[in-house]
Specification:
This protein is α/β, with parallel strands linked by helices. It has six helices and 14 strands. Bound molecules: zinc ion (2 copies).
Amino acid sequence: MGFKVKFWGVRGSIACPTANHLAFGGNTSCIEVSAGGTKIILDAGTGIRSLGTWFMRKDVQTATILMSHTHWDHINGFPFFAPAFDAGYSFHVMAGHLADDGGIREVLAGQMAQPMFPVPIEAMQGAITYQDFRAGEAFTLPADSRISIKTTPLNHPNGATGYRIEYAGKSFCYVTDTEHVIGKPDENVLGLIDGADLVVYDSTYTDDEFPAKIGWGHSTWQEGIRLCRAANVKRLAIFHHDPDHEDRFMDGIEAEAHLEWDGSIVAREHMRIKLA
Ligand SMILES: [Zn+2]
Ligand SMILES: [Zn+2]
């Protein structure tokens, strides 16, 4: 069955479904990982709505949902994740930044509380379990002990967790949202991504835009390349695109990034990458 990644949402901050965003996609963060017969979902941005429809069509009945953090663009799709409302499905939701802060269930329930949303989290009839851990911990996936997970805290307001998923001798890392310090590579990120086959990295800005955005919690595609080179990573997927970066601008980033390092690609909605 292999080890595969599919992008369902690649945008940061807010969904932007305009004609000028169609080539790269307007939905916010959501990635499907298939490892053998096991499914992992990274984040529940607006991309998870289509993923849910796909799961129901393909009768995929269970998955683990790993949350980077709980800013809106990473959780807004959760109330629209249709299989969660169906008793035939089960999901295990995990997060690493809320162990001391109420826990992941409370935050997801909060976004569905009245008067922000008409239907409470209790309306989800699927068997949904929630688990908090501390970013930095390593564990095997509760659903499948052949899949090992390493995590690290990221540099982001309210905290965020970076993940490394290892299966079948390959490794995939998900590193968003995080801010770098100019000239000082993040040791936590370097340790997490060391030698990885594919790294998805917060590339919200360009190096030119970055100085005006210090403190906003995001990084650049150039920093992604610097980190991946330093850590002997095979491929970088530029991710969490700024909604202000329309398709024409993203085409420019794609060309520039490829010139800079041929291991770099720009993530697009519905793009698939096979790791094993
Ligand atoms: Zn984000
Ligand atoms: Zn964020």
